[in-house]
Design brief:
Helix content: over 70%
Shape: globular
Distance between the termini: 30 Å
Structural class: mainly alpha
Number of helices: 14
Length: 353
């Protein structure tokens, strides 16, 4: 018995709603766990009382509201943003192995932020100014410059570019920028700068504070909303550039615009969290298994799943070797590396990924 197209659409919509509901509950549970667990264990009931304003002033209240809650919010924001960016880049280059690191965007943002950290102390910039203005601006500039360089290297004589050439250019630029970051670290005058920048390049959320959340949260909301409005062109581009052009999409101009938007969002997120890898690679694949590849349905699911993933990963980073705080980027790399190899093997075997 065949189902009608309307019935199929209703079934797909019901499935998406169920997935979004489960992910929302999971994010709430991960947030509560992130506030309760750490080097100091706080009873869950007391955490709820603190969040609802019924708890008396205490050290636990300070830990929850001033230390852990900003960290959880930053982790959810960065996880959602990186997952959304990875999804969009995979559509733009039509390669399931793409993520912000593959195209050199995160590496460029890292170079910019590291330069701001080191030079900020040389020129006597205050810590507050450096955190709220200088590092985000330098991070975005580095991301945009690296993306322009990758795009220029990948362009062919006809003005277009092949996906393989773009990825190779991205990998080459990423290696060069990573080496440049290492050079800055080695030549840093202060051992304190070396430690700070090294921890930052590994990716971590330990520096989260309330006064630094406005920009990344606003960038995530605005950037995701803009990308949601581009869902249909992204679907067309994912299906094939020739078909997209036939249907009236200026693929080259659209790709440039989305690349700039992706570099802006990546630069802002990396400025506050450091270089956290593989979130934009793993999460989109898991989300497509649940709701398919249509971006209007996929992007909200990807954002929620990325938020859940990074909040849970950061909780593990804070508890697995407590009281030592492991950079969360180390844990995402430990899980993302094998996942990348698995995807590469499936791709070599001709299995769709």
């Amino acid at each position: 018995m065949r189902t009608s197209p309307k019935g199929d659409r209703r079934g797909a919509a019901g499935r998406r709603l169920a997935v979004l509901t489960v992910l929302t509950v999971a994010l709430g549970a991960a947030t509560l766990a992130g506030l309760a667990f750490g080097s100091v264990r706080i009873p869950t009931g007391q955490v709820v009382e603190i969040l609802t304003g019924r708890a008396e002033p205490s050290p636990f209240r300070t830990i929850v509201l001033d230390v852990r809650l900003p960290r959880v919010i930053l982790g959810a924001t960065v996880g959602a943003g990186l997952a959304v960016i990875g999804t969009v880049l995979q559509a733009l280059v039509r390669n399931p192995l793409a993520d912000p690191f593959l195209l050199g965007v995160s590496s460029g943002a890292s170079v910019g932020a590291v330069c701001a950290i080191v030079l900020g102390s040389v020129f006597g910039l205050g810590a507050a100014l450096s955190t709220t203005v200088t590092i985000p601006a330098a991070s975005f500039a580095g991301a945009l410059i690296s993306l322009i360089l990758v795009y220029a290297l990948a362009r062919g004589g006809s003005g277009g570019f092949a996906t393989g050439r773009l990825i190779l250019a991205g990998v080459a630029v990423s290696y060069i920028l990573t080496a440049l970051t290492s050079l800055i670290l080695v030549t840093a005058d202060s051992a304190d700068h070396l430690k700070e920048v090294l921890y930052w390049t590994l990716g971590g959320l330990g520096s989260a504070r309330w006064d630094m959340l406005a920009l990344p949260c606003a960038a995530l909301v605005v950037g995701t909303a803009l990308l949601m409005s581009m869902a249909r062109p992204l679907d067309l581009l994912l299906a094939g550039e020739e078909g997209a052009t036939v249907l009236g999409l200026d693929a080259a101009r659209f790709r440039v615009g989305v690349f700039v938007l992706a570099s802006l969002l990546t630069g802002v997120l990396v400025a506050y969290s450091g270089a956290i890898g593989f979130v934009g690679l793993m999460v989109p694949h898991a989300a497509r298994m649940l709701v398919g590849a249509a971006h209007r349905a996929l992007l909200p699911v990807v954002a929620l799943m990325g938020a859940v993933f990074l909040v849970a990963a950061d909780l593990a980073a804070r508890t697995v070797a407590a009281p030592q705080d492991i950079p969360v980027g180390v844990l995402t790399a430990l899980t993302g590396g094998p996942f990348f190899l698995w995807l590469l093997r499936r791709r070599n075997e001709g299995v769709p990924v």
